[in-house]
Design a protein that fits this description.
Blueprint lengths: L10 H6 L3 H28 L15 E11 L2 E10 L17 H12 L4 H12 L5 H9 L1 H10 L5 E16 L2 E13 L5 E9 L4 H13 L4 E7 L5 H8 L4 E4 L1 H9 L4 H15 L4 H15 L4 H9 L1 H4 L7 H7 L3 H14 L8 H16 L9 H12 L8
Parallel strand pairs: 3-6, 6-7
Antiparallel strand pairs: 1-2, 3-4, 4-5
């Protein structure tokens, strides 16, 4: 029988099938025969002569029976006879050495893991969908293969110029030396020349400092970034000093939304509504001069009770009001770190079932897979990009790296 005849489904065979089990068994056997036929074709190609052919004499290598392997597939567990050669140089393509699970099931496991499913839920789902048992260790081994992708992703070249970057962190609990520690995965999103967002990387650390942020920025410089026009951040410890050291020309804009939250955190409830209404006259002013006048009026009214709030605005005034130097379209995308907070929120949804990660690598793996899911949806440029890029080119000129 020719190998390709195995893939034809005879009508008489189908007519004999009377139940779902007989139907499943038939395709189970058909799949087995098809895979084994392809393996025989592979070893024939590898050796260079058909089985029992005289041309194989004194060729230096020959067939050496079969080894047994059980392959987990979407049709269930299928026992296979894998051809061997005497020199042990035959490495099948259709069923690679050491592989005991079909690529389809492996991809399903990675996808379910990236969606935040627990290992137990993945085990049950694979059992229900494919009729095969997958151990917790197998799931870990499969998802651990993602770590190589994480490494490549963290080292990939970046664009030379990013018009805007947003930086922030998301806290997770991980185990280390028998203790549960709170660690932060810091993320950076860059706005590219085409108006699309891109996650530039992630860095995990227990504390933040100027030294830590300088390492982060040195990392992206080593990967090709030579300029950042505007950096939008929360008032993270040491970040402003690090930006000035690594990218001296970059304009820093502190997140106004974070500043408003911090300012109102300790305001008594009954006064909070009026406090926030008065504060709006500062950050929603038409220009920086009017904003400063509004801040002075705000200080006269609330300074006696909430002097710390006014002092925080005064100490960070230049960074909080950098957005006033730009047209409204640009202000909308730089006055807040909403772009990265939205990313963090989505990552939380994907990782909500993992209350404590067993180690840092597990946290990185989960965050990387969540980012991959998010970036698939970033198919459109930021709103008004055609207007914004022209405004940026007028403001920054040759630093944009765009031919005018």
């Amino acid at each position: 029988m020719e190998d390709n005849e195995l893939f034809k489904i005879p009508e008489e065979a189908l007519r004999k099938i009377k139940s779902q089990k007989e139907f499943d068994d038939y395709f189970h056997e058909l799949y087995k025969q098809g895979i084994e036929a392809m393996l025989k074709a592979e070893i024939k190609e590898h050796l260079g002569y058909p089985k029992h052919d005289s041309s194989g004499k004194n060729s230096g290598n020959s067939r050496n029976g079969f080894s047994n392997k059980t392959l987990k597939t979407n049709l269930g567990e299928i026992p296979l006879d894998i051809p061997r050669d005497r020199n042990a140089t035959f490495d099948p393509v259709i069923v690679p050495k050491y592989q005991r699970m079909s690529a389809k099931i492996e991809q399903a496991i990675v996808t379910m893991y990236s969606r935040g499913m627990t290992v137990r839920d993945i085990e049950e789902t694979i059992r229900e969908m494919y009729g095969v048992e997958v151990s917790e260790g197998s799931i870990s081994n499969i998802t651990n293969a993602v770590l190589e992708n994480v490494k490549e992703w963290q080292q990939r070249p970046l664009d030379s110029v990013y018009f805007v970057v947003w930086m922030d962190g998301i806290v997770f609990k991980t185990r280390q030396n028998g203790k549960v520690l709170a660690k932060t995965v810091y993320l950076m999103i860059g706005l590219r020349e085409d108006g699309h967002k891109q996650v530039l990387g992630m860095w995990i650390n227990e504390t933040e400092s100027a030294s830590f942020w300088l390492n982060v920025l040195t990392d992206i410089k080593a990967r090709g970034v030579r300029d950042i026009l505007i950096a939008c951040t929360d008032n993270l410890s040491g970040i402003q000093q690090a930006i000035k050291a690594a990218f001296p020309q970059t304009i820093t804009q502190l997140c106004v939304v974070h500043q408003i939250r911090n300012s109102s955190r300790y305001v008594v409830w009954k006064e909070r509504k009026q406090f926030l209404a008065d504060l709006k006259s500062v950050y929603a002013a038409i220009n920086k001069e009017m904003a400063y006048d509004a801040l002075e009026e705000f200080a006269r009214k609330w300074g006696a009770k909430y002097g710390y709030a006014i002092k925080s605005w005064q100490n960070n005034w230049e960074e909080l009001t950098a957005n006033f130097d730009f047209p409204v379209e640009i202000r909308k995308i730089i006055y807040t770190t909403n772009a990265i907070e939205s990313l963090n929120s989505t990552i939380r949804k994907y990782t909500k079932t993992k209350t404590v990660f067993p180690d840092d690598q597990s946290a990185q793996k989960a965050v990387y897979l969540a980012i991959a899911n998010v970036e698939k949806k970033w198919t459109m440029p930021v709103p008004d990009w055609g207007v914004i890029i022209n405004q940026l080119m007028i403001k920054f000129g040759d630093r944009c790296g765009v031919t005018q």
